[in-house]
Amino acid sequence: MSVATSTAVDETARGGTIAVRVRGLSKGFGSGEQRVVALDKVDLDVYAGRMSLIVGPSGCGKTTLLSVIAGILNADEGEVAVFGETITRMGDRAKTRFRARRIGFVFQQYNLLPALTAAENASIPLVIAGWRKGPAVARAAEVLTSIGMGKKVDSLPSQLSGGQMQRVAIARALVHDPQLLVCDEPTAALDHETGLTVMELLREAAVRPDRAVVVVTHDNRVFHFGDRIAHMDDGRVVKIEDRDPSLSAA
Ligand SMILES: Nc1ncnc2c1ncn2[C@@H]1O[C@H](COP(=O)(O)OP(=O)(O)OP(=O)(O)O)[C@@H](O)[C@H]1O
């Protein structure tokens, strides 16, 4: 295994396209004595065509960092650029539009609507983007088929296993072809084998020159999927591991 540690910001060494550039990012919650500093001047580069992991102990700021990167939370200070667009300078409406078009989300909870079939659930981002229902569901069925769920497109969530529901959630995250896929503990609710399958699937989605995947996880059984692993502690990125992508997940 080839593992190199480096600083979080490494302009030249990798030579890839920077998908997400985080600079001086700080974020706190509460005020006075109750104040918690969740992010403390974080710098990080995430490369396109790579799977990046954000890891670290509970409460170190992983979800906060992912949420600011994805434009769900506003930062107090610092900048985040996603494929060259500085989302920390966007207004709320522009950020919402950017998120809807360019970012896909996968969470620990699948958040599927129980009355909708797998294909209908996976079609939701397209419907929100203005597609008519028929073509949207047909496109979602194609994406589901491409990730081995072809036989389940008409199933309701209650008829699916946890791993299958997470695949529907992944199809939903990919259906509008986002450039950035952000995943918060995607394997936490799954058994080990299913978790590995889900990570493999996410990797397949990541390995495109024009797309990046960022996964927050504290599941060290899936760390080997990361091409770049950002270790956080106490609101800071304290170590970066870069691995040869051809060796990841081996
Ligand atoms: N909405 C909030 N209000 C107040 N404090 C918060 C809020 N969200 C997060 N925090 C605090 O910020 C810090 C970082 O939280 P965060 O959820 O980012 O950590 P994490 O590394 O993702 O943790 P875990 O692995 O347990 O999910 C923690 O101390 C947490 O209690």
From TrEMBL:
Coiled-coil segments on the chain, per record: none
Q: A Pfam family in this protein?
A: ABC_tran
Q: Which residues form the ABC transporter domain?
A: 20-250
Name the SMART domains on file.
Answer: AAA
The source's superkingdom equals Bacteria
Gene Ontology MF term list: ATP binding
> Where do the TM regions start and end?
none
**Entries under PANTHER family matching the protein:** IMPORT ATP-BINDING PROTEIN, TRANSPORTER, PUTATIVE-RELATED
- Protein name per the record: ABC transporter ATP-binding protein
